[in-house]
Amino acid sequence: MSAIGLTAIGVGQFYRTVRPEEKIALAATASGLFILFTIVGSVFNYLLLPVGELHDMAFIVLDRAFGFQWLDFLNATAEVPLLSPILRVVYASSQMQLILVVLLLGFRGEARNLHQFLLCGMISALIAILIWWMFPNSTPAAYYVLSDETARIVQPAVDHTYGLELVRLAKEGVRFISPRDTLGLISFPSFHTVMACLSVWFTRRIHYLFPIFVVINILMIPAIIIQGGHNLVDVIAGVAVFATALFSARAMLGTIKSSAQGVFATT
Length: 267
Known about the structure:
Radius of gyration: 20 Å
Largest sheet: none
Number of strands: 0
Shape: globular
Order of helices and strands: HHHHHHHHHHHH
Number of helices: 12
């Protein structure tokens, strides 16, 4: 993945300096930076291990206060067998959606929107990691065992075994980090929810694609809960993290723009 990111940046700089095509340069460079940041963010998250005792039961209790129970939701989903394969595909589309958004904004020449997208994504990731570090958590899948029939139909990406491994990592840490072995550590807040919000928000001006992104990411909500092994409150927190990061990114870019205009005004 690092090689892919570096190659994309190299292609971007080629089209910026040797064969000037700014839109291609913008799309390729941004794609490379996005890929490299996801790798760095994942490694940084792992370096915080171990984090000690988890707060999982508190989030499960919060879900119950909203009248939601994770196990009941998965059992209900299993009663509609055709839904599960759709949700698996939707859940797996998250990163591809983000890459597509980067390419679309780049090839459309929307540099400011693309910069805001990247900055918002980075701030969101850092906020999510900080919250997870302060309130360590794993997944409700670690505390519930699905029936054989529900597991066969739903086939969650984050199952009971996966959940138990997250609990172990939180308590014991990790000695070796490998791209093949890294797991998604954070449950609360849900970063898949942040990714869904990014995809929808930054395609809102692309009228021929926006409705498609909306439909996919409405389906992403149950997919996150089922395939990602998330509580309902994880999703709600993910929306809040996105909103905070978007506000911060817009404020930072506005400050940079104002500062640059001030510099040019005085020269």
